[in-house]
Design a protein that fits this description.
The chain is an all-beta fold. The chain contains one helix and 32 strands. Helix content is 2%, strand content 74%. The protein has a 27-stranded antiparallel beta barrel.
Length: 663
């Protein structure tokens, strides 16, 4: 019998590449032979990537147009190897590398040029004593990927990463540690960014008393530099430490204690800051229907010459009177102190809270759930100075919603927004915008092809506001909610009512709020839709909001999927008459035509109107993936369009990726 041609070709390739290293065939379950050096050729391929960009930008004021074009062609040869030294459990290695030529030609208006450089991408890892609890792994990667900030914003990311990981995985305190160096280059024509990070991580854990108690420790050290084109530069040293402990005591673990300590520090930066957070949570289950809780929290933040600290405590009981009725009552208090140059604010609040939760099965056609929470609090403010500094106030930015800063009379020129880690500073008008909303201030994500804030991201806001005078007042907070699920959850009616009233504090900017929301949602097979109407009555920031949403996940045939996501919101600021409109539509379709051929198409648009902010963003993408034998072919096209206050940006992107494998 003649040997198969593929086996002959593989043997010839191994002979040529490995220089005479023999690879002997053996049964799958046979032990690895002891050899001084083993080398296995896993893959060999030729690959060519061609990317073409075309961008047109028109600025209405001062009135200029810019045309940018760029073509990238990267032919390369790829080789994948793995092997070991003496034995795979002693030293095992993997290597995938691409070597070739990177040719680029670019043009901006009348200026053009071209560059040619050596192309090198790789994925390397070395595992030493990989079956031992003290194994060591060394890695290095250089790659090209794409990052989506949201559906409409996709950027090209070139990255280099190398480092090592080790630790000890057995014993009473298993631990791991790692070091990583990371370089990132986002090649966005309008807003290129560069980031460098030196990161050290350490984690340890201890599980004891038959898994009834555990302690975990995590520490991260990050020396970072972030360059946002020519617009801004962030650098600093970030340290994060987290220590948590969970304990169960008593018969049937009726006592539970959760302790948590977090520390975060930003130094060697323009605005150094430190934050310490401590939380204690004790739960006692006295009977199956009666339990009590005891909570304490301490939060301290410093930034420059400003510092703030907060202590909170809560004690309460929860009683399950009936199977479908639960009641809770608690006593709570909070002490806060803020200090900055020439300004002091001490706040003390204490009160009582009540909660009720009720569920009911309504025969065969539905289920009912009701909830109530209320509190009565007394609050005292002792203030001096003219300007209050607020440090790292957390906000979640969601398109189509109103997000207000907590303090009134904000200095709009002194607002700083960072990501949740505090390492990246976002830019006003490019990433976010601040809008006056009565005496309060709204912060809003900018929907843009160049925005670095994703929809729904959490940001930290540091700002200054006018200090309010000393005063004391009482507040009453009532909140009720209901939901009726009909026909096994196919439809639902829900609502929420919240009312906050104040007594006293006439010299303070206090905002009594009365919020009512009612909604309907329904789902049938592959379709879900809903409607919400919200009315917010406020002294300083009243508004009405109507929201409609639809989603569809449909499989028209066995090898095809279709999805639609739509969201529409209309917001009216009832005090000023300003109307804001938000539309979002995203559709995706994918079909596997044959085993070797698949195609996909997706597109969407997002529109914002109102308040002097009119922006349209549209994106369409199409792609074809074809794999026949050892040839892989990818073809794609992307279109982006953005129109902001008569400033127009249009972008076309086309790519072809071809790979021919030989093994």
């Amino acid at each position: 019998m003649k040997p198969p041609r593929r086996l002959l070709f593989c043997c010839l390739a191994l002979s040529g590449v490995a220089g005479g290293v023999a690879v002997a065939a053996r049964p799958p379950n046979a032990p690895d032979p002891i050899e001084a050096f083993q080398l296995h050729l896993k893959q060999v391929y030729l690959q060519t990537d061609a990317d073409m960009f075309s961008e047109y930008q028109q600025v209405s004021s001062p009135g200029q147009t810019t045309t940018r074009e760029r073509a990238i062609v990267q032919p390369a040869v790829g080789i994948g190897l793995d092997g070991s030294f003496y034995h795979p459990n002693l030293l095992y290695y993997r290597l995938v590398t691409e070597l070739g030529v990177d040719w680029q030609r670019s043009r901006e208006n009348e200026k053009s040029g071209s560059t040619t450089s050596f192309l090198q991408r790789y994925h390397v890892s070395l595992d030493l004593l990989r079956t031992k609890p003290y194994s060591l792994s060394v890695f290095a990667d250089k790659d090209l990927t794409y990052r989506d900030y949201d559906f409409f914003s996709r950027v090209r990311v070139e990255s280099t990463r190398y480092g090592a990981r080790s630790g000890y995985t057995t014993g009473p305190v298993p631990f791991s540690l790692s070091y990583t160096h990371y370089d990132e280059n986002v090649t966005e024509t309008l807003r290129p960014t560069q980031m460098t990070q030196e990161m050290f991580n350490f984690s340890a854990s201890n599980v004891r008393r038959h898994e009834r108690a555990n302690t975990q420790l995590f520490y991260n050290l990050n020396q970072y530099t972030h360059q946002d084109g020519t617009l801004s530069r962030d650098r600093g040293l970030s340290q994060t430490m987290s220590l948590s402990d969970h304990e169960n005591f008593g018969s049937k673990d009726w006592i539970q204690l959760l302790s948590m300590l977090n520390y975060n520090s930003q130094s060697q930066t323009v605005q150094p800051n430190d934050k310490v957070f401590l939380h204690e949570n004790l739960r006692l289950e006295h009977t199956p229907r009666l339990r009590s809780f005891y909570e304490y929290g301490f939060d301290s933040s410093t930034s420059g010459d400003a510092e703030s600290s907060t202590q909170v405590g809560r004690v309460g009981v929860v009683h399950q009177l009936y199977r479908n009725l639960a009641s809770s009552v608690d006593l709570h208090w909070q002490d806060s102190a803020t200090r900055s140059s020439g300004t002091e604010l001490d706040t003390r609040r204490y009160g009582v809270g009540l909660g009720e939760s009720y569920t009911r099965h309504l025969s065969s056609w539905g289920n009912l759930s009701l909830g109530y929470s209320g509190s009565f609090d007394h609050e005292e403010h002792a203030a001096s100075g003219a300007e209050l500094q607020v440090i790292n106030e957390s906000h979640k930015l969601i398109d189509g919603t109103i997000n207000l800063l907590s303090q009134p009379n904000v200095d709009l020129l002194n607002v700083r927004v960072t990501d949740a880690t505090g390492t990246i500073t976002y830019l006003d008008t490019l990433d976010y915008r601040v809008l006056p909303h009565g005496k309060f201030t709204e912060i809003q994500r900018v929907t843009s092809l160049s925005s670095a804030i994703t929809n729904g991201a959490t940001v930290l806001v540091t700002y200054s506001a006018t200090q309010q005078p000393s005063a004391a007042y009482d507040s009453i907070n009532n909140s009720m909610n209901f939901r009726i699920d009909l026909w096994d959850g196919r439809a639902g009616i829900y609502g929420r009512w919240t009312k906050i009233d104040y007594s006293g504090g006439e010299d303070l900017v206090l905002d009594p709020i009365d919020t009512k929301l009612v909604g309907l949602d329904a789902s049938w097979r592959w379709l879900r839709t809903g409607l919400e109407y919200e009315v917010v009555k406020s002294r300083y920031a009243p508004y009405e909001r109507l929201r409609v949403f639809q989603s569809l996940n449909y499989q028209p045939m066995l090898d095809a999927t279709l999805s639609l996501d739509c969201d529409e919101s209309w917001i009216t600021q009832t005090d000023t008459g300003i109307n804001q409109t938000y539309y979002s539509f995203i559709a995706r379709y994918r079909q596997q035509l044959w085993m070797s051929l698949a195609w996909r198409i997706e597109g969407g648009f997002q529109m914002d109107r109102g308040g002097g902010y009119d922006r349209d963003v549209a994106t369409a993408r199409a792609g074809l993936d074809w794999e026949i034998g050892k040839i892989m072919f990818k073809l794609g096209y992307e279109y982006n369009n953005e129109n902001y206050s008569n400033d127009l940006r249009t972008r076309h992107y086309f790519y072809i990726h071809v790979r021919r494998s030989f093994l």
